[in-house]
Please model this.
Amino acid sequence: MSLAPFLSPESVAIVGASDNPDKIGGRPIRYLREFGFKGDVFPINPGRDTVQGLKAYASLADLPKVPDAVIIAVAGTGVVDTVNTCAALGVKAAIVMASGFGETGPEGKRIEAEMRETAHKAGMRIVGPNSQGLANFGTGAVLSFSTMFIEAQPEDGPVACISQSGAMSVVPYGMLRARGIGVRHCHATGNDSDVNVAELAAEVVQDPDVKLLLLYLESLPDPAALARTAAIAKERDVPIIAVKSGRTAAGSRAAQSHTGAIATEDRIVDAFFAKNGIWRAKGMRDLVRAAELYLKGWKPVGRRLAVISNSGATCVLAVDAAEHAGLEMAEFPPAIEDELRSILPGFASPRNPVDITAALLTDSGLFSRVLPAAGRDTSVDMFLVGIPVSGKGYDFPRFAADTGAFLKDGGKPVVLAAPQASVREAFAREGVPVFETEDDAVEAMTQFVNHRALMARSRPGAPAAARPPAPLEGLDENRSLQLIAAAGVTVARHRLCTTLDAARSFLEDAPGKIVLKACSAAIPHKSEHGLVRLNIDSEEALASAYADLVAGVERLGQPFEGLLACDQVKGERELVIGGYHDPVFGPAVVIGDGGITVEAMPDNVLLLSPFDEAEVMDALQTLRIAPLFRGVRGQPPLDAGAVARAAIAVGKLLCDETADVRSVDVNPLIVSASGAIAVDALVEVAATATARAAAQ
Amino acid sequence: MSLAPFLSPESVAIVGASDNPDKIGGRPIRYLREFGFKGDVFPINPGRDTVQGLKAYASLADLPKVPDAVIIAVAGTGVVDTVNTCAALGVKAAIVMASGFGETGPEGKRIEAEMRETAHKAGMRIVGPNSQGLANFGTGAVLSFSTMFIEAQPEDGPVACISQSGAMSVVPYGMLRARGIGVRHCHATGNDSDVNVAELAAEVVQDPDVKLLLLYLESLPDPAALARTAAIAKERDVPIIAVKSGRTAAGSRAAQSHTGAIATEDRIVDAFFAKNGIWRAKGMRDLVRAAELYLKGWKPVGRRLAVISNSGATCVLAVDAAEHAGLEMAEFPPAIEDELRSILPGFASPRNPVDITAALLTDSGLFSRVLPAAGRDTSVDMFLVGIPVSGKGYDFPRFAADTGAFLKDGGKPVVLAAPQASVREAFAREGVPVFETEDDAVEAMTQFVNHRALMARSRPGAPAAARPPAPLEGLDENRSLQLIAAAGVTVARHRLCTTLDAARSFLEDAPGKIVLKACSAAIPHKSEHGLVRLNIDSEEALASAYADLVAGVERLGQPFEGLLACDQVKGERELVIGGYHDPVFGPAVVIGDGGITVEAMPDNVLLLSPFDEAEVMDALQTLRIAPLFRGVRGQPPLDAGAVARAAIAVGKLLCDETADVRSVDVNPLIVSASGAIAVDALVEVAATATARAAAQ
Model:
């Protein structure tokens, strides 16, 4: 069932139509007429002959034809009745604006489900309830009651804003319009009871005129649809920037009380967005900040910045901001420096940052010569022009025109930082993205180049299917090690011993010392119970340890299931690998530094399964302990490849539906210059799977 | 020599006066006449009878009286001549605008020094050269050629902007004026050849109408004057916010090429500012962002925020932003919740964040009741009101008036976040600080409360006198340990042994194993030469180690000065304490995590000496390893007090002028649950001090 009738209907009826163009049932009629909608508009109002000058109808059944789309601007029980009528008539798209449904509790959710069922049976789709409506300024189908389209005059353009929240659909709209940027789509999906925000995004991103997609999400109701959106966006080279709010613990609680959104570990959202090439904005400011840069269609090849200003102080501030944000300062080769030297006055520096000095007052054409000269340098990826003050003597229209001409001639990306509005306006008119301060400009550029790089390496894909909740059963260490070994994790040589003789024979074969530990699913925290003996290198020590541990298990009142003998492994660093199933995103693997500070001083990274070795290697580079993988103080580098392979194996194990492993805890994974060996593990499986395996 | 003649002269002469009010020599005359200067203005121009309608004089000598201040708007050799004339006549204040002096090299610096000497002999002070001038809108003494006072109409007000750079004196001026904030002082000191930026700040901060001081610094020419400024500011409760540019390595290089500023380790600047209660802004945006909050005179007692919005999404975003920035969400007690419940519609939440919902459309008075109710709660320190959309039906003037009335009635701090300019304007008119987004509002509030807290605990003070450079001499480990022990650092029991017998006797007294190491100032990196033996617990091992080490020293071609025997100390963590003399700020002590990753994964904090135990304890809490001082996984907490005492002792040693210690490296300091023991140290002293000590 296509969503086209929502975005490009040929006819629209408004149930609850108001003659007052400032009421909820009146505003969509006003908008449809003002913003160029070409199709039929049918007000439904049993009490009036006309509504806002249009012929009004008493009911949907009275219409001369079945409308493609119906705006349901009534409340209460009228909503369900109208949905039923729409479905019966063959309407394709219904937008329910009223609140008071799923967001209020189970009864509201039940009604939503009923309406959805009714609609689907009839081939109809529903947006809402609790939707502010949809607005497509390309077709004039503005089926929305937002007041913002009066406050900020619409102009069709390359941006699409899609949001669950009504307010956050029009906030970016307002901020973009204030900057003169055209917005085509401005949609609020509300409760997502049928059509959800991600499904609508997947439709909108196919609009060939959409060049930038902005999303506001409070929940992720449909990761698969979001991944589909990302895949289409990648194909079309449309950047997606998304706010997923509730990113902090307190924010997440606030979001739950606002929308009843299911909480998910926030960094899984980060991982999912990154995989899909979606840039995650922290808030509304970040969502729109770099819009002009994206819309230029620039494809920066690197992050090397050149700064040009008539103020040395601006140069210093821009360089500070760039280095802080992670941009690099381009280094001009001698030939470019020579050329700049020939252009600039003797006391100006031909190096980057280029301080063209007050000479700009006497030579207004400096930008027309400096930009192309520096632009020819292959070491420069983009420019920041800084003009801190304005006033008589500065020929801003000329500077702006020269900069604009450089851009139009295929020059490299240029942005302006200027605190004076008049300077910004002059440059904006010439198509140069403008910012108030060096920090703003640099932050926007950094986001832009980082996002373009993310888009280049992204591999959009839906998360693995989430497993239904199940009671969990922890396996004992022996079975845990066997499972992860079978999946491909290198584990320390070990043996479950139910007799001292068996343990003796293990010790005989050992290349060095061994460890002896209690082994029982009922005793997962064996260290805390003193049931681990290290450094065993003699039969006497073994016998004593064996007896101690058997007695210890007995003291805990647990049946004796054997002791696990294990080679004592040496290495340089203890890491941990954990894996679990997120209820929304499926298998996730966490790799991190280990030891006693694993919780107190966390240093780890999360990956969504499936992932490959290159992805783990990249992820390991984001850890604080990354230098250890390059070698520190003459020590050999830790074996990152071995860590990566272990993590991949854990991810694979979590994806294996037969084993139905629900969580894995490899702690520690002992890493050396050549290898990574698991010496302890705890695997939890769905209890049903255990039962099944046990029965086999 | 007071600086009053610069800020409130009774008469001003302009040498190089121009009839054209848009020239450098013309603009100050225009400004003095336009902006209410009440004193005499004397244009000096030998070629004209009048300048801009004022009687012109051929020379300073022709004036009817000696002017308090002279603006020197000529260039080249005319500058020195004019300075000489001013000094001879008894002028008190000269402002040199021309560039081409100290910033161009040694010859320029020499000329600056000559002018300064001439001036001081005559009791005159000089601002500049390379100064855009000074502007005091309180007295109308606008002795500046900045074009910005035409671009942005001045209005006297509570802010002072003082900068070395001309551009960065007027950039904050322009940004503040665009927000309607009045600025009294706007000064650019240029090359600081005589009056420097800090000295001028110390004068300006005494102006009783100045409530906020903004500084832009590219160098710190006079930390003592800055500390004096900070002390007066603390006394007067005037917040100081400063940009010190060149804060990154690349930025610092750029700053040096711009001003020739001496590079100093950037975090010393952080430490110095923090000690003096000065908030360090990253750039111009941060410098002015929270200005309105400071100017309200609010004294927040905590960081607990309440959020009120008609949009649930805005609530979520504000909470996200607050938690991210480090503010806390206030938790209303039941009585307040009950009261809010009685005010709000049934479906709205009386909890924080308070979503007052679309009920605001039908009840425009909600703010007038919600703010006072929540404001009575002692758990709330400040409010963020969020209004994401505007439009007909929302009575913004009423909301703004209600919020303003709450503030005027002594309510707690309130700021507004609203993307629509019209909403912001309504609230700004009522005296509410306004921001475009939740992020902006929260960042400003966070800076404000953090800065007020910093001001409360600051103890302004000049840095210790920097020592003149001297050749350094490294002491051997034995002398190094003795020096730090004498200063109060607990060191491991040790003895310099020149015979095996001496070492034997040390081992006999040892409570456990000992370490034997080569001891010679000529072999500072003994470990790298294999000249350290650990785990010695027998006479045999000792004899063998002794012989090996003696042979090893010989192999290096160094004279044998003895071996250092040392108790082998056990502990939980190896820390390091380093100390050195910064050429500007004097003794600095660095405390950090140790081990082989000390450089690769740095985790340390810098303190300027002198400091006390409480300061070190605070500083240790900023380390990544801070949890170790609270105890991790049942392990006892590391002894932070012992670390603090060791750091204080190192700081004290650096301050001791007799010893003239120039650097200290305690590595490692072995820290346990009860104590911190230095087991190795390297002290460098000024060679002269050694010579002196040796002679004694």
Remarks:
- Chain B has 25 helices and 31 strands.
- Chain B touches chain A through 86 residues (CB under 8 Å).
- Chain B has four domains: 1-131, 294-457, 493-567, 573-695.
